[in-house]
UniProtKB/TrEMBL annotation:
InterPro entries for this protein: DUF1176
N-terminal signal peptide: 1-19
Region called Disordered, residue ranges: 22-54
Record has Signal as a keyword: yes
Keywords: Signal
Record-given protein name: DUF1176 domain-containing protein
Organism: Pseudanabaena yagii GIHE-NHR1
Amino acid sequence: MLPNRISLMAMLASLTVMGCGSPETTNSLPTPSASATTTKAVTPSPTTSASPKVSAEATAAKAIAVGDIKELDDNSTCGKSKITYAYGETSNYRVYICADASAPERPRYYISRNKDGSGGLDMEAMNYNPQKSGTIEFKNDGYIYTLEAPTTQNPEPVLRVTFPNGKLSEEQLLRYLARNGNSNTTTANASTAEPLQYVLDNRESLGVCKDNFRAEDGKRGIGSKAFQISDKKYLVQIQCFLAAYQGAFEYVLWIDDAPKPRVIPLDFDGFQEGKNGEKPKRTTDRSIAGLPRFNVRSQTLTNFTKFRGVGDCGSSAIYKLEGDRMVLQEFRAKYECDGKYVQDMPVIYP
């Protein structure tokens, strides 16, 4: 039987866990025509032919190389009176983020060059700062060009184009260079520390992990952490405690409102085994047990829970963050602990 809130905590010692999902995107960025290399911003069309695609499996197999911008072989792309702020490289592109020498801490120029020599993009941020926590974003006519930085929250960064209709095209980074080697990573880690610490400091008044909490477990296993959703919005994950195989977790949204942050607790729907042959019953709970994984890009959270250590029974769920709610997308479960193992558990919902 799927445990309720009270029995969930007691059963954790016999549970174990597994992985997560990925966003629905393509693996190649739109390629502009050769004439697109200009001193002005150039926007590709969604119908523009793409450069040769690289499979997700092949790209993911290549570990990203991280270093200082001084390692760049050719540091002249940005031009005179400018410096190279960051550099990203994928299978098909080289992207140079440049800054004015008079304002070296603020990125202003985006220069992309296709490795096949077919062209590229040149953009300038005139009235906004492209630097975000863990990313650099340039906007042009409804398109957003994003260079992600490798961080502890995002170990597999990408180069992404977001189209006006919301569709994404992205390639995984193979190399990332920054001034002083890790400036973006330091910024990202510092930004997530504040919402996490706020929730931990106010845990009792917020009602987080009120049934059972072990502070020493917060840095073990998956641990407690925060994920940046937007400039002022974070998803905060608190590991209430860690048992032998998996932990108990609760989540809140932390929103940077004045005069003090606003915190919204999140609920998770699941399905409990029906009695006497009845259909599984839908339940709602603040806590989940397992090894949850949150994907920032797709804003989906996946979780797998074993009902006992041998793994012959359990459940899996996929949730998507929509506004201030975690919406259940799929729930699978095998309730009978009969010593038989299945590759895919039966679908309970939808």
